[in-house]
Amino acid sequence: MDYSKIGVRYAKALFELADERNLIDAVNGDMRFLFESLTQNKELHHYLTNPIIKSTDKIKLVNEAFQQNFNALSIDFLKLVIENRREEHLLAMCRRFEYLYKEKFGIKKLELLSAVELDENILKKIEHRQKYHWRIYFGNGRLALRCKR
């Protein structure tokens, strides 16, 4: 199977199930946290993707690391991924889930570049406009504002 298709299929299945159960925001938060954890903690990523480590040990780690803060659906999904030996595709699954989430809610990315550093007062005004003005302009979709400093 094409590796890119694996991440897409798993993410789509999780997304549809989360949407059906009205858990889409919670699962999205879990997938974002998982993505950040795997990209920032190389040891965690290596452990989960290492084919030599037993699945039972990986599931034990997932339970210890994430069960307190993750939704049960997210935990069950991670266990399924591990049991099916698809751990190496977790980052792709997280990225695809985020893509599907943004697509469903019409979230657009806005990047603000400035020649001078913007003070907090100006950033608050921009954020206020982003919430109330630009949402209408983009068809009542959500808009993610990211300021580079």
What does this structure look like?
- Helices cover about 70% and strands about 5% of the residues.
- The radius of gyration is 18 Å and the shape is globular.
- The chain folds into two domains: about 100 residues, N-terminal domain of the delta subunit of the F1F0-ATP synthase (Peroxidase, domain 1); about 40 residues.
- The longest helix is centred in the first third of the chain and has 18 residues.
- With about 150 residues, it is mostly helical.
- About 5% of the residues have low confidence.
- It has a two-stranded parallel ribbon with strand order 1-2.
**Overall SS class:** mainly alpha
What is the CATH homologous superfamily assignment of the largest domain? N-terminal domain of the delta subunit of the F1F0-ATP synthase
Which shape, going by the Cα principal axes? globular
Flag low-confidence runs. 134-141
Note the main sheet.
Answer: 2 strands, parallel
Helix-strand topology string: HHHHHHEHE
Total strand segments: 2
And the CATH topology of the largest domain?
Peroxidase, domain 1
Mean pLDDT: 85
Can you identify the CATH class of the largest domain? Mainly Alpha
Oligomer: single chain
What's the alpha carbon Rg, rounded to whole Å? 18 Å
Summed up, the domain count is: 2
Strands of the biggest beta sheet: in what spatial order? 1-2
Strand % is 5-15%
Please give the share of residues in helix: 55-70%
